[in-house]
Write a structure and sequence with these properties.
225 residues; alpha/beta; Nucleotidyltransferase, domain 5; two-stranded antiparallel ribbon; 7 helices; 9 strands; globular
């Protein structure tokens, strides 16, 4: 019951929060991936979590249990790296189908140095034979110039939101990196025009708008072509 109260309290306190999609953003795909090694207490399978952002706003995210048991944290991280790479490649092809072509490599951030070394190391050895397919897949995208891997500090890793239980301060800090804004915050002045609403803001179901000290929800609908 206490867990239910916590969830309801969080939902009530975040009713006006949503994702900000800016018109003036750079069209670049950036991914963040992480894993929680042996997270399942029953099967000891690890968790994979990743965020994909376009122009600084999340457009795809996922948490899932890995299909096999990883024998090391590096293996779990590398499987997460391969899943995030697959999602980035799919989104790149999806944008190309819409007529949006990206001229820069997709960036993928990982906080595990061992996984990054495996990705850049062309020599396989006994420690990496069991993840050889994932290695070939990621390295193929690296050599093609479609992907660029970078190291990120664990404290700066937003994918931790999907794989680990965090303290309140760390949770709020990482959430602030996802482009989430609060319409009820004083910094927004409490008023948003409909033109700004449809041009810059897009939320999951409806958007609370303050007008004359009252709130109403405006559903987002696609315009007919």
């Amino acid at each position: 019951m206490e867990a239910v109260r916590r969830v309801v309290r969080y939902i009530k306190g975040s009713a006006g929060q949503g994702l900000l999609l800016r018109r003036d953003c750079n069209m670049q795909l950036v991914g963040f991936c992480d894993s929680d090694w042996g997270a399942c207490p029953l099967s000891r399978k690890s968790l994979t979590g990743y965020f994909v952002m376009l122009g600084g706003s999340p457009i795809s995210w996922r948490t899932k249990k890995q299909t096999t048991v990883s024998r090391s944290s590096a293996e779990a991280e590398y499987r997460s790296l391969a899943d995030a790479t697959s999602e980035l490649v799919w989104l790149r092809s999806f944008l190309a189908a819409l007529g949006i072509f990206l001229d820069r490599p997709m960036r993928l951030f990982c906080d595990n140095q061992a996984a990054l070394h495996i990705a850049h190391n062309p020599v396989f050895h006994e420690r990496t034979k069991h993840i050889e397919l994932d290695c070939h897949f990621v390295r193929e995208k690296l050599e093609a110039g479609l992907l660029a891997l970078s190291k990120i500090s664990t404290k700066q890793q937003p994918a931790d939101l999907l794989t680990k239980a965090l303290g309140q301060d760390q949770f709020q800090f990482l959430k602030s990196k996802l482009g989430i804004i609060d319409l009820h915050a004083p910094t927004l002045g409490g008023v948003l025009t409909s033109s700004l609403l449809y041009s810059q803001l897009c939320f999951h179901s409806c958007i609370p708008i303050r007008r004359h000290s009252s709130y109403r929800c405006i559903p987002i609908r696609k315009r007919k072509s």
